[in-house]
Amino acid sequence: xxxxxxxxxxxxxxxxxxxxxxxxxxxxxxxxxxxxxxxxxxxxxxxxxxxxxxxxxxxxxxxxxxxxxxxxxxxxxxxxxxxxxxxxxxxxxxxxxxxxxxxxxxxxxxxxxxxxxxxxxxxxxxxxxxxxxxxxxxxxxxxxxxxxxxxxxxxxxxxxxxxxxxxxxxxxxxxxxxxxxxxxxxxxxxxxxxxxxxxxxxxxxxxxxxxxxxxxxxxxxxxxxxxxxxxxxxxxxxxxxxxxxxxxxxxxxxxxxxxxxxxxxxxxxxxxxxxxxxxxxxxxxxxxxxxxxxxxxxxxxxxxxxxxxxxxxxxxxxxxxxxxxxxxxxxxxxxxxxxxx
Amino acid sequence: xxxxxxxxxxxxxxxxxxxxxxxxxxxxxxxxxxxxxxxxxxxxxxxxxxxxxxxxxxxxxxxxxxxxxxxxxxxxxxxxxxxxxxxxxxxxxxxxxxxxxxxxxxxxxxxxxxxxxxxxxxxxxxxxxxxxxxxxxxxxxxxxxxxxxxxxxxxxxxxxxxxxxxxxxxxxxxxxxxxxxxxxxxxxxxxxxxxxxxxxxxxxxxxxxxxxxxxxxxxxxxxxxxxxxxxxxxxxxxxxxxxxxxxxxxxxxxxxxxxxxxxxxxxxxxxxxxxxxxxxxxxxxxxxxxxxxxxxxxxxxxxxxxxxxxxxxxxxxxxxxxxxxxxxxxxxxxxxxxxxx
Amino acid sequence: xxxxxxxxxxxxxxxxxxxxxxxxxxxxxxxxxxxxxxxxxxxxxxxxxxxxxxxxxxxxxxxxxxxxxxxxxxxxxxxxxxxxxxxxxxxxxxxxxxxxxxxxxxxxxxxxxxxxxxxxxxxxxxxxxxxxxxxxxxxxxxxxxxxxxxxxxxxxxxxxxxxxxxxxxxxxxxxxxxxxxxxxxxxxxxxxxxxxxxxxxxxxxxxxxxxxxxxxxxxxxxxxxxxxxxxxxxxxxxxxxxxxxxxxxxxxxxxxxxxxxxxxxxxxxxxxxxxxxxxxxxxxxxxxxxxxxxxxxxxxxxxxxxxxxxxxxxxxxxxxxxxxxxxxxxxxxxxxxxxxx
Amino acid sequence: xxxxxxxxxxxxxxxxxxxxxxxxxxxxxxxxxxxxxxxxxxxxxxxxxxxxxxxxxxxxxxxxxxxxxxxxxxxxxxxxxxxxxxxxxxxxxxxxxxxxxxxxxxxxxxxxxxxxxxxxxxxxxxxxxxxxxxxxxxxxxxxxxxxxxxxxxxxxxxxxxxxxxxxxxxxxxxxxxxxxxxxxxxxxxxxxxxxxxxxxxxxxxxxxxxxxxxxxxxxxxxxxxxxxxxxxxxxxxxxxxxxxxxxxxxxxxxxxxxxxxxxxxxxxxxxxxxxxxxxxxxxxxxxxxxxxxxxxxxxxxxxxxxxxxxxxxxxxxxxxxxxxxxxxxxxxxxxxxxxxx
Lengths: 341, 341, 341, 341
Known about the structure:
The structure is a homotetramer.
Chain A: E1 2-6, H1 12-24, E2 28-33, E3 38-43, H2 51-57, E4 63-68, E5 87-89, E6 92-94, E7 100-104, H3 111-124, E8 128-130, H4 148-161, E9 165-168, H5 175-181, E10 184-187, H6 195-202, E11 208-211, H7 218-230, E12 236-240, H8 258-265, E13 270-272, H9 274-278, H10 281-294, E14 298-302, H11 320-336
Helix pairs in contact in A: 3-4, 3-11, 6-7, 10-11
């Protein structure tokens, strides 16, 4: 249902013109004349009104405003699946009582480093390993990732540690190769509204970790999830990773309130990436703890054995020992809110 | 120490002109010619260079950029007092191991309601009671507070419960009456850069709860604390309460990463106000938990016995029972990070 | 008129409870049951519903959302005075066909400099002279202004040039002295929601130049104007001076679209301050031209005879010759849109 | 050249460790000990230091901060081509004295409407026609464009009017078909950091219209241009189209100060899209005028013969008559700043 607010002084003819327009779409108009304004309640299946039609109604003569009451996403809404979605990946159930931690380097740099990191994060309690083979970099002169070679190392790390693999898809043309190696396909923040890429993973059977865009509202983020789900893939994990604000003391502003907000609006699991959220390794631990306390279903944390030599994001990576300590410190917090990690 | 970067092609004469300017301020210039740029390291007590002088150096012919290396605040910096400030208010030590909770209604509405709320929050474990007698309202047609009458009720609530009182100062002309009743003087977000008000509380001996401005950077916030401290009052408590961003799902975006950032930069205690941060009562509990996990020294939470009838901020107020449950739920989280509440 | 949207599954009893609440405020409920939602159109004088009451209705059981249809400001709205406000200050009519330019230094530094600048801006075509005697500075260690001495110099500059004086009020306790010297009282960006200050100038008979707050929405800005007007002073000039965004290439982001937006919403004159908007002197001229093209009623521009020695804002000040050239360049643009300067 | 600022108390050994690291990259260290801090000026070709290396230096023991002095983009910088780039497209020279206007519907909806619009905008003085065949839509349920059919209509419109065609590329897999029909390839705001797409158009010989991302800094935007140019395509046109801020009165906040800022930083032509910048048709004309006054090299404006029936962005489209009037009104403004339109 939509509500149309008329300007003061709207004529009867203008009103009739609007009503006719609505009726031409199979809708009914419930006119309500107040002392200061007349409003029209639009009755019928307004989900048939596209955003475009809504937009054009707003410029019809006599219309002051159009207010949409129903949310523009359906499959992603909590109402669609009140109990919450759980996703089982090789025995790891995401969205349940257990909080999952995805850990690993920003980029896969070489075989030895990756195997070493994977072993360490497994020992510390991570349940997934991550690493980028295709890297979105702000500079064309920066390291762009190893490509399929990196994916092969990830597969080997999975074989050795038993940890399923999370890696990013940047280009629809890489879909085939990514599907071959990944257990969860990550869509990065800069691609949250790369709609073709969303449709591509929507056609896949692999779970998708959908990062929030730097300046995406929660509503737009859920619409991006809806894109994926509209193609049949309902295994979407949302991942808060910081939004862009005026504050420069941190790389981004981690919006932890997005966690409880999403828990109300959607049935999808919600992760938090404190590493990108703050951009500095010594701020990662307190924000990881805060994320768990706020109700996140999982974390994604950058870990590197030698951050000083990392080819990407060394500044925000934890060393294995710091990661181990963090995992230990998270346990009583998880337990305090009735969960495990 | 400051660094002056010169444009490519700067002449020797321009360079001499800049050096002379620095020397006229009692500073020395350490010139360093690189392959691509020449830079000047400014040696001497650059704290004597005001922001204005820095700004004007930046427009001298040949200057590309001036980079300030030292922080503009001194008294508020962690280096000034590495161990952290503790503030003892009638036996309640803020900034120590114990996490303090300030609770109460947004505005003092009448005697009965306030006494009732004060009693309830005391029972639940709050250690301070709050309530506004002078209210900053966005509309001139809204309830503006009871004035001194409200302060008297707060004093009575303190007498009955033993809880010290936190209340807001909006106008330097109210300083005398506020000092008579308050144990902590609150400076609201909209007044964070009301510099006259800052100087006024700087001259007071009462601790000050300094809320972050809606669009204040952490650096500006610390400069506001410096204003107060420059007058001799070093008992400043910083309070994160959400910043303004593009997201509209919450009233503001609660920037919890400010907590660990401030812990590095300053020795002052850091509180969090989740009620204003999110603006909706059902999001307050998860964000209060997250704030504690992130390392906050205290919380400030709006509680009302009958939010549906509140004259201000009913939407974001907890009922006494919800507050009681929250206080109980915070205990194991505080304990998980080695603190008590 | 307000609209209340009910949650799906709201009971008849909850509905009756809401209707009763409305009726207790002297309002009527027009219930409209759609296929997906039930909405209540609130009929009667909803201006009697304060924001607080609206807020508490939103937490009543069964309520999903409350949408306000009428604007919260009245006196400031275009509907209140469709023809636009003009303000006559010693023969200079603001809000008419002629575009006015207020020029001068950021701060009054000494008598000689001010007289010199005033003379130069008068020659170039400025119609008002500005200068701060009380300065809001982010650092307590910066120059804070000359106080009444500065005001006296401004009065002398007015006497010598005939230009009326614009100067800033920071503290209600300075009201008396400011009124004695100023022709227009400026409320700075950081005080846009210093509500006590707004009420103070609302009681004055002097025109007020109300700068937009760094993170103020246009609606909040108009509410600040409403504060002033609610006390009887309807001579308010709005001044856009840049908002805070993520972009750091400019000091602020000058929101020129605020000009045509305000022209629709309010009858008050709209000025633009490109100097603070961009913060760099060489960007001032293009943005001044753009402001005129966008429909601004006036400009406020910082001019200094020797920016390299200015005690405040030297970086963004024009030299008299650059200002003179700008004034000349603005003429054909003003003329292109049917105005003069 | 980079500058490394050391923490107070950094040991000689730490200093040696940092110097060794720099020397291992073929760089020299110029150490400068001040009274408060020691800084290292890094001498040599620091363009060989990638952002990663810079980032990891910042976490070496003893390092407080690393400041980059040189801009991260080279090909896009004004220094690379001081005279400014001009692009000749079928005789239309972009970046010269003449201001160009690209006009047309948001999406190509059908043949008749497009031909009609193209004819009208040609008559009014537009020099390019635009229209989307592949549309990025926030909802998967919205109209997604006609695909190649739409491109064919655009080609037909070009044939009939002589106007070269501007259309958007969303997916690298569409590159071949887009190249066949487009004269300028548009990269939309949501794809400004779709790095694979940037490389793709970088390999093309077609000029590229690169829209600014919703939350992209000017520096990031120039880095996106650098991506394209690094592949050999130097014909990049930058297009400001509004950034995301807290203000909701307009769809975005049009950052017109980006125009003069870019004119200093880069040699590339700068366009402005007021239609997306404000999102409301009646605000387009004043902002188009302001853009020209601010120094834009061109405009891109949405025009539709029947906005009420448009399938996309009807709300912000001008009708042909309004567009015609705007083109007429722009002439004297262009002339006032020494240009033509």
